[in-house]
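Researcher: We're teaching a course module on how sequence relates to structure. For the next exercise, students receive a sequence and then see the predicted structure as C-alpha cells, so they can try to spot secondary structure elements on their own. Here is the exercise chain.
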Amino acid sequence: MNSAYMSQKAGCFAVPKKHIKIAVFCAIRLISTVIRRTDPHQYHGILRSKQAICESAKQFCVAKSICGGREAFGRNSTDWHRLLEMCAFTRTLILDEDGIYDPTDFNDRLLLGLKGTMSEAELHLIQARLRGGIINKARRGAFPSRLPVGFVYDADRNVRLDPDQQVRDTLALFFETFRRLGTAYGTVRHFRDAQIPFPRSEKNWADQCTVTWVRLNLGMALSILHNPRYAGAYCFGRRRVRKRLDGGTVTHDLPPEEWTALVRDAHEGYLTWEEFTANQVRLRQNLVLPEQVGGATLAREGAGLLQGLVVCGLCGKPMRTLYHCRGGQGKADYVCRTRDPSHTKLVCQSMVGTAIDAAVGALVVEAVTPEALAVSLAVQDELVARAEEVERLRRQQVDRCAYEAELARRRFMRVDPDNRLVAETLEAEWNAKLLAQADAHEAYERHRLADGLALDAEQRAGILALATDFPRLWQDPATPMRERKRMLRLLLEDATLLKQDKTITVHLRFKGGAIRTLTVPAPQLIWETQATSREVVEAIDRLLETHPEYEVAVLLNAHGYQSSSGKPFTVRMVEGAARKYGLTSHYQRLREQGFLTVEEMAERLGVYIDTVKTWRRAGLLRGRQYNIKGKYLYEPPGEHAPSKQRGIALKHRTGADAQDTNRELHDSTLGGAV
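Model: And here is the predicted structure for the students to work with:
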C-alpha cells in the first residue's frame, strides 16, 4: 500500500500519517488485551507470537472486541459479512499478516469478501476430504460405530457376539417369538406376560457401554427388528438429519437402496439376511390398509375370515375389511373404496362377509385332509421346545442373581472390620443382592409350575385329538380367529369377489395354482330382513274382519306367531303391518258395514252423546269396540230404536230380547277365527 492510501485510511480514524506504525502497534495491543480476556481453552496458544495475534485478528478478533469477546462466529460467508458490517458501522480497522483494511472502503471491502469466500471454500474442502475418508472406510465396513445390544468389539476391533450367554439366548428367543407371532406388539406382550427381562445397552459415566436388564417395550422391539446388524450386515447412512428453521433437527429413515454403505456377512449375526428381509416384509404387512403394502396383510383377530386376501372383481384392487356389530356379534364387510373414472362414486362395491366366510370355511373343511400325526407331533414339539427355552432363560437369570450375591459377599468379607462406613455399605449391597436372588428363584419356581400345568399329559392328548380332526379344530369356538386365518393363508393366495344382482361370485386361488369358484346368495337388505312373512299378513287380514287390532295381536301371540325381529306382536306392529301391506283396518271395515260413530248415533236419535253411551251400557244399543282406548261404533238402530221415556228406569226397559253389546275378548282360537 502507498503512503497516501495509508494516510487516507489513517485519517478516517484521526491517526496522523507519521504515526501509522504507532496506530498499528496500539491496535495489536488492543487486540491482545481482548484475546487475553476470552476463554483460555478457546484461544489457547494464540498469544505466543505476534503472527498468531494477526492470524486471529484476520477475521474474528476485532468483532470480538465489539461483541465482548465471548460469541463465536462460524466460518462461513454469512457470519464474515456480518462481521464486516459491524466493523464498518463502528469504523474499526481489520488487520492480518498481509496488512490493514478499512471495511468502509470499497476496494478493501471487496478484498475482504474474497478472502472470506476463500476461507469458506477451504473449510468446505477440508470437510469434503474428511467426509470422503469416512465414506470410503464405511464402504469397506471398517468405520467403527456404536454396536447394538448383543454385539461387542474384541481386542482387534472386530465385531463379535456378546459373550454373555443370557444376552444371546434372550435375543434368540426374541427373534423366534417374532417369527412365530408375526407382530412386534405380540412379541412384546409375550415377554411381558412371561416376565422375561430384556438387555439394553447404556453408556456409563466413563463413556463405556454396559448392559442393563429392563422390560421390553415396543420401541426397543422395532429398533431391533429394523437393525440389519443382527443379520450380520454392516450399514452406514441409514438416516438423514435435516435442520429446521427453529434450530432443531429432523431425522428421516432412508430405504436400503439409499444407504451409504451396506456390507452383508460382515460379522456374526443372530439371523440370516433372508430372515431379516422376511421380517421387514412382515412388518410392512402389519399395516392396516392392504393398498399400503400391495398384498395380503397379516392375520388379525377380527371376524373377517378373508381379511387381507380379498380382491375387487371390478377394479382388481385390494378390498378393505370393515368391522361392526350386528345382533351383539362382530361382523365383517368387504368394501372397495376405489373411485370410478367420473369421480362421482366412491365405493366400487361392498358386500356383507358373513355368508362368504361361511362358504369359504365349508370349502376348506371339505377340501383339506390334514396329515394328523405329523401336525400333532410338530405342534407338541414346538410347545415343549418353547417352554424349555423360556425355562432356561429364567434359570440363567437365577444364576446371574446368585453370582451377583456371591460377589457382594466376597466384597463384604474382604473389607476391614474397623472401617464401619464401607462395611455397612457393602453389607447393605449384599442384602439387596440376596433379596433379588430370592425373588428370582421364587419367580422361576412359580413359572416352572405354571408351564408344567400348561403342558400336562391330558392337554397334550387334547392337542393330538384336535390335530387329528381338522373340521373339529376349525369349528371349535375356542380356536381364535387369528389361527383360522393363518391356516387359511397356508392354502389360499387370494379371493376375488364380484357382486351381482342376487348372488356373489367368489374365485378362490390356491397356493398351488388351482382355482375354485363359489356362488353365494347375496344377503338380504335390511328392509327385506324386517319384512313380515306372507303367512302372518294373511292371518292379520282374516282376523281384522272380526277383531280389533289389539285383539289380533293377542291372538297371534297365543298361537306362536312372531314378528320379523323375533319379538311378540304389539298393537303398533299390527297397525304398521296393515298400513305397509295395504290392509283395511278394523275400523274401516265396520264403517263399510254401516256402523255409526257415537256422534252420528246421537244425531240420529236426537239425544246427547253421553245418553248414547249410557244406552249402550244398558243394552239398548249395539256397539263394537274398534280400538284399545274403549271407543265404539254402533249398529244402526232400525225400527226399534230406543227413545226417551220419563219415569221408567233403565233396568226396567231392558227386556229379554235386549242383547248385551259390550265387546268382550273372544276366546275363539285362531284356527276358528281364520
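Model: If you want an answer key for the exercise: The radius of gyration is 47 Å. Confidence is low (pLDDT under 50) at residues 1-22, 30-73, 655-674.
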